[in-house]
Write a structure and sequence with these properties.
Distance between the termini: 20 Å
Oligomer: single chain
Number of strands: 6
Strand order of the largest sheet: 5-1-4-6
Helix content: 40-55%
Low-confidence stretches: none
Order of helices and strands: EEHEEHEHEH
Structural class: alpha+beta
Mean pLDDT: 92
Strand content: 15-25%
Number of helices: 4
Shape: globular
Length: 138
C-alpha cells in the first residue's frame, strides 16, 4: 500500500531524525568533510514530517517509534499497491503546492519547522489538494 502520511514526535526533547544505522552513516560522511560538515537535523513535538511510504501503517509507525519513542502518525491518503507512481506524483504535488512556503528543518525536504503550521492544518491542506487531484485525473 502507498501511504501519504504525517508524523509528529510527541516529546519536547530533540532527537536526530535518523535511526542508529543512518545516523552513523551521516556522522561518517561528516568526518570525510572536515571544515564542511553538514548539520544533522533534530526534531521534537514542534516539527511535522510529511512523506510517502510503501508498506503497512504498522511498519511505518514502528520505523519512527524506534527513533522518537512516542509519535502521532496520521495516514492521510492511502493508495493501492498498483498506484505507487500516483503516490510519488501526489507527494511532489503536495510539496510544491501546499508546503513550499513553510520553513523546513535544516538539510531536509520533508520535515516542516514552521510555527504557522500544525498537524491538523497540514492534514487539511493535503485533503484539499487531494480533492483537486482527484477531479483532474478522474
Amino acid at each position: 500500500m502507498g501511504i501519504i502520511y504525517l508524523i509528529k514526535p510527541k516529546k519536547e526533547q530533540y532527537k536526530y531524525i535518523y535511526n542508529k544505522t543512518d545516523l552513523e552513516k551521516r556522522i561518517q560522511k561528516n568526518k570525510l568533510r572536515p571544515g564542511n560538515e553538514r548539520v544533522i537535523p533534530k526534531a521534537n513535538f514542534k516539527n511535522i514530517k510529511f512523506g510517502r511510504f510503501k508498506g503497512s501503517k504498522d511498519s511505518l509507525y514502528n520505523r519512527y517509534k524506534i527513533i522518537f519513542d512516542d509519535i502521532e502518525l496520521r495516514t492521510v491518503i492511502n493508495f493501492s499497491d498498483n498506484d505507487w507512481e500516483k503516490t510519488k506524483d501526489f507527494q511532489k504535488r503536495v510539496k510544491k503546492r501546499c508546503f513550499r512556503n513553510y520553513r523546513k528543518l535544516i538539510n531536509t525536504y520533508e520535515w516542516l519547522d514552521d510555527k504557522r503550521l500544525n498537524i491538523d492544518i497540514a492534514e487539511k491542506l493535503i485533503f484539499a489538494e487531494y480533492k483537486q487531484y482527484i477531479q483532474e485525473f478522474n
